[in-house]
Amino acid sequence: MDKADKKKAHRQPYDKRENFELILSSLNTGLALINSDLTIAWVNKVTRGILPWDALIGKICYEAAAQRDEPCEGCGALMAFKDGQTHETERQSPVDDRWHFIVSVPIKDETGKVVSVLESVTDITERKQVQIERDSVLKELTVLKKKLEEENIYLKSELRQVRLISDMVGTSNALRYVQTRIAQVAPTGSTVLIQGETGVGKELVARAIHDDSKNGRDRPFIKVNCAAIPANLVESELFGHEKGAFTDAVQLRKGRFELADTGTLFLDEISELPQDTQAKLLRVLQDGKFERVGSARTLKSEVRIIAATNKDLNAEVAAGRFRADLFYRLNVYPITVPPLRKRREDIPLLVEHFIALIAPRIGRHIDSIPRQIMDQLKAYNWPGNVRELRNVIERSIITSPNSTLHLTDDLSAGQQLLSVEPGSRISLDEIQRLHILAILEKTGGKLEGAGGAAELLELKPSTLRHRMKKLGIKRQTEG
């Protein structure tokens, strides 16, 4: 080998090392080789640009990188020396506040001992800023979501309390009995039959049962007023219809059973259902299956049924107007809501509550209720029950000239008109007829609108007209 070849052979390892360093320095990643005593053995050009020291070789890594007197918490190099595993960490530089992603890879000798650690350092400041901003937004959204959920729970609780307070205020044994019955049946999912006169709060009881059932507040509560739906449309309302099933069926429509799936279907005025619909309802109660009008496809719905009526269903069954088998299916757990006249001791509490609820809303102040006024309110039979009491109080608040409550309504007139001799044989329809006539006389024949008969009776005007037609009542303006 001549002198030139020897020189070339001597130079070759250095050329390879320089080329290797050139390749490593061309990467957009900082590299550093760390000795077992955590001193820096070698760095590439990117690392030299990251750290502010002129001479990095021989410096302790945590002094050079983080200006610390001891290793960083969770130091990847230190852990790699201890367990011989690769570790990934993220750190923010105290020098320029930039974030770096560090991978610490152990380098072992032929015996498996870790002799050094190669660390790669990638600047992830922009990515980290996006992540921090995202996490901040997510945290804010989580806080807002929790706040909204808490407000939603609070509002639902308040709404339920308003319902309970506005129509079920009182301490009478009759009211406590109803509340006990609600608490007993609500969690069970059983069918409930609510009975009581118009205006006693049957829908209120149904909603309380639904709300107190398992996950009730998150599931649908669908109401159907069976008396307000024309007989030829009842089936379509309950079970839905296909497009083209009949003349006005221009599109597919889901029925109340589908809408109430997993929730509660409240069938108000159940006694008004036509006989053929009663038979189909019975099938749904038995196996949960039904078909839309115009379809042969069988659908299934898991629905809790709560039915309500102001009639004696036993009498309706005996008269052949209501199916006995359907009655027995509905009458699993009966609840009878007492009329207001059966809990007169609750009237003072209701009056005080309605004044506190209504007076501020309409900009009035009532702080005195004369004893004779309260005696009149307690003596009246309240055929319209709690709803009628509320309407009487609201009218009285509006017309009272000062802060003392004055009654607008002459309660004695309606009392005399509705009186029935004890032991007299009078049908339920006749009592309803007399009651509607009394209310129409009180309103001067006014059927709908504020202060109208429909409002006092807590009925839709269309329902009241249907009831009047059925009972043969004609308005004075018609006669």
Structural features, described:
The protein is an alpha/beta fold and 479 residues long. The protein folds into three domains: 107 residues, 2-Layer Sandwich (Beta-Lactamase); 168 residues, Rossmann fold, CATH 3.40.50.300; 132 residues, Helicase, Ruva Protein, domain 3 (Orthogonal Bundle). 46% of the residues lie in helices and 15% in strands. It is built from 19 helices and 14 strands. Strands 2-1-5-4-3 form a five-stranded antiparallel sheet, with helices on both faces. A five-stranded parallel sheet has the order 7-10-13-6-14. A two-stranded antiparallel ribbon has the order 8-9. Strand 1 and strand 2 form a beta hairpin. Helix 6 packs across helix 7 and helix 13 packs across helix 15. The chain is elongated. The N and C termini lie far apart (137 Å). About 2% of the residues have low confidence.
Give the CATH H-level superfamily of the largest domain.
Answer: P-loop containing nucleotide triphosphate hydrolases
Gyration radius, in Å: 41 Å
CATH topology call of the largest domain: Rossmann fold
Give average pLDDT, whole number. Answer: 81
Helix/strand structural class: alpha/beta
Principal-axes geometry comes out as: elongated
Strand order of the largest sheet: 2-1-5-4-3
CATH architecture of the largest domain: 3-Layer(aba) Sandwich
Helix tally equals: 19
SSE order and pairing:
Blueprint lengths: L2 H24 L3 E6 L4 E4 L1 H6 L10 H6 L9 H8 L3 E6 L6 E10 L5 E10 L1 H44 L4 H13 L6 E4 L6 H11 L8 E5 L8 H6 E2 L11 E2 L1 H4 L4 E5 L6 H13 L1 E3 L6 E3 L3 E6 L3 H6 L5 H7 L2 E4 L10 H12 L12 H9 L5 H15 L11 H7 L10 H15 L10 H5 L3 H11 L8
Parallel strand pairs: 6-13, 6-14, 7-10, 10-13
Antiparallel strand pairs: 1-2, 1-5, 3-4, 4-5, 8-9, 11-12
